[in-house]
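Usage

Read records sequentially. Each one opens with the input sequence:
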Amino acid sequence: MIDDDYKIRVFSILETMSTALMPLGMVLYGFLYDIFPAWWILVLSSLLLIGIVLVLARPSVVRKAHPELNELKAVNSW
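and closes with the structure output:
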């Protein structure tokens, strides 16, 4: 449905952004490790990640992101 040329462009932009943000994460975590104990940072990061996953994995959010799942569910119910 989407031309492959556009997919390549979007994924290249996403890859470039993720690669460019890695040094920022290193600086941020390096600063935090200098101030707080390591286990605090790891526990807080883990809890934050679990919270984000639980919020984004709700069925209503998944249905909005993937409307084709509603159609698949209707077909499978027959």
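Summary fields computed downstream for this record:
- The first helix runs from residue 4 to 35.
- The mean pLDDT is 87.
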